[in-house]
Amino acid sequence: MPTEFPLEQFQDLYLQAYESRLKGCTTFRFNPEAFQGVLVREDDLKNTTYVFELENGETLELAGDEKVVYDGEEHNAANLFDGLKEGTYGKW
């Protein structure tokens, strides 16, 4: 679902699925605070800013699709942010 899709209509989808007697209903709505995955649209990555706090206290703001080298490996900012948050690269 597009990020700007109204929440009320988004919630109605489940009621429609129930009333249609569907066995299940799966949706995906981009939320950079909660999830980063393969179903994310490129526009959502470009329009989402990730803020990294550096060891010296400075902050670095990057769009989700920007490339960044961390510990000798290239990542996009969104994946690196999630990896750091989840402890993939140790504590931050």
Short structural summary:
The protein is an alpha+beta fold. The chain has three helices and four strands; from the N terminus they run H-H-E-E-E-E-H.
Describe the secondary-structure layout.
Layout: H1 7-19, H2 42-46, E1 49-53, E2 59-63, E3 67-70, E4 73-76, H3 77-85
Antiparallel strand pairs: 1-2, 3-4
The topology string of helices and strands comes to: HHEEEEH
Q: Strand arrangement, largest sheet?
A: 1-2
What integer is the average pLDDT? 81
Helix content: 25-40%
Structural class: alpha+beta
Largest sheet: 2 strands, antiparallel
How many beta-strand runs? 4
The total of helices stands at 3
Textual characterization of the structure:
The model has no long low-confidence stretch (mean pLDDT 81). The chain is α+β, with helices and mostly antiparallel strands and 92 residues long. It has two domains: 1-30, no CATH class; 36-92, no CATH class. It has a two-stranded antiparallel ribbon with strand order 1-2. Strands 3-4 form a two-stranded antiparallel sheet. Helices cover 29% and strands 20% of the residues. The longest helix is centred in the N-terminal third of the chain and has 13 residues, at 7-19. It has helices spanning 7-19, 42-46, 77-85; strands at 49-53, 59-63, 67-70, 73-76.
